[in-house]
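User: I'm writing a short report section on ligand binding and want a predicted complex to refer to. Could you take this sequence and nickel (II) ion and write out the structure as tokens? A short remark afterwards would be nice.
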Amino acid sequence: MALLDIVTYPAPILDKPSEIIENIDDSIICLIQDMTETLYDAPGIGLAAVQVGHNKAMLLYDVAEDEDSPGTGLKVLINPRIVHTEGKVCSENEGCLSVPGLRADVPRHACVSVEGVDHEGKPVKIDAEGLLSIVLQHEIDHLEGRLFIERISSLKRNMYKRRVQKALKEEG
Ligand code: NI
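Assistant: Sure. The structure tokens for the complex follow:
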């Protein structure tokens, strides 16, 4: 296993839709293992393959709140899509490993139903609410080439973009 570098805004790959995975081959299994290590190291609760530079429709998440046995709630979702949404909610203080230094409130669906396959290619359907619903919407956004800053006020978004540009300039 290996720790992978997390790609951050404004890397162009983060704007690109991810490709459907046709075969869960060894390279995908290896990527899952490396992404798992990277997720827990970060630490984060969700990670899309595009965030580690792979334009593949796959995401990992772990929203288990069992602090005594961390790493036990890992789930892998391949080729996920939202098939149903219900209600509206404000996701408070949402953040993203690819958007360091920013947290913001994001309008989200309250509940979503998601279909995809797991790491063995078995069909999965998840009816999610609460934190899981938010994480799934956030990660599926990544697979569609969308960062959460696209869903916040333009004022906040532009402030963040200027801050990043300035920091990049200072780094030379
Ligand atoms: Ni993210």
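A remark for your report: Residues 96-98, 138, 142 surround nickel (II) ion (CB under 6 Å). The beta strands are 46-48, 58-61, 75-94, 104-117, 123-129.
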